[in-house]
């Protein structure tokens, strides 16, 4: 008997037009292009324009994904938008995107798992499809992290950028094996004990302010490699495949050193790692779909390929997803 699978019908992306290079940051911070590149692999990042909101980025990425999927907004059953930088405390930024798309049916909501947000959102949409409660889903990761950075703190200001990515999922069928097309499995984890290693020091209930991002970089690095390897191993074991079977590894674009260390520990060859961190920096929940859109757009990811996604963010949260393209 067949099983329901969530097929990826289209991928989209959007990046703000303003490019900020390492040299630009060196003018105002005690840093240099060489210092940033050596420690992170980042060369530049995109920064949203004044008045350009997370919903603006999300809408552009969503429209791009819908065009790629040849799906009209009227056909969407649900929108799940992953973001840690919503337009407003409420309503959900997803509902703003819903209205601007002209979608008058279905439902829309946000999920907040910081850099893991897109993997979480993908898992939520996949489960709605598997439960038969939705047939066509729009999953978005969008961030304006530049709005929560302390631009005087070189340890965090150099790491992040703004952007958005999206995918359209459509219900399909499979035989229940790893040869099926679509999302084969998703795996989510969290550990709230690690709050103080990566957080924002503000919020409506706590300080009535937005606050700034704070991070203990060395500790985050250490946890990231261990946790992400766990998530990758779980995805491989669940589906009875090995690292050698992975055609493309699309990780969260936090830091090139983390990408390299995680791939090495998981047994994924560097030639199969999609890396966009040099030009996008860390765009939090947008980083995985942006990297995915890059690899689909340039033809690297092809039908039938086995694609592994992973991400880790503040909380800590982390997770993985295995997809047959």
Description:
The two termini are 22 Å apart. The model has no long low-confidence stretch (mean pLDDT 97). It is built from 10 helices and 13 strands. The relative contact order is 0.20. The chain has helices at 22-26, 33-40, 54-69, 93-101, 117-130, 154-157, 217-239, 256-266, 277-280, 287-297, and strands spanning 3-14, 18-21, 44-47, 78-82, 107-111, 136-144, 162-174, 182-190, 198-200, 213-215, 248-251, 306-313, 317-324. Helix 3 packs across helix 4 (93-101) and helix 7 (217-239) runs parallel beside helix 8. The chain folds into 2 domains: 3-174, Peroxisomal Thiolase, Chain A, domain 1 (3-Layer(aba) Sandwich); 182-324, 3-Layer(aba) Sandwich (Peroxisomal Thiolase, Chain A, domain 1), CATH 3.40.47. The protein is α/β, with parallel strands linked by helices and 325 residues long. It is globular, with a radius of gyration of 18 Å. Helix content is 32%, strand content 27%. A 5-stranded mixed beta sheet has the order 1-7-6-4-5, with helices on both faces. The longest helix has 23 residues, at 217-239.
In N-to-C order, the SSE pattern is EEHHEHEHEHEHEEEEHEHHHEE
Describe the global form: globular
Low-confidence stretches: none
CATH third-tier fold name of the largest domain: Peroxisomal Thiolase, Chain A, domain 1
Which superfamily, in CATH terms, is the homologous superfamily of the largest domain?
A: Thiolase/Chalcone synthase
User: Number of DSSP helices?
Assistant: 10
CATH architecture descriptor text of the largest domain: 3-Layer(aba) Sandwich
Helix amount: 25-40%
Structural class: alpha/beta
Strand content: 25-35%
Query: Using DSSP, what is the number of strands?
Result: 13
- Give the total of domains: 2
Largest sheet properties:
5 strands, mixed
What's the level 1 CATH class of the largest domain? Alpha Beta
Report the average pLDDT across residues.
97
Rg on CA atoms, Å: 18 Å
Strand order of the largest sheet: 1-7-6-4-5
Distance between the termini: 22 Å
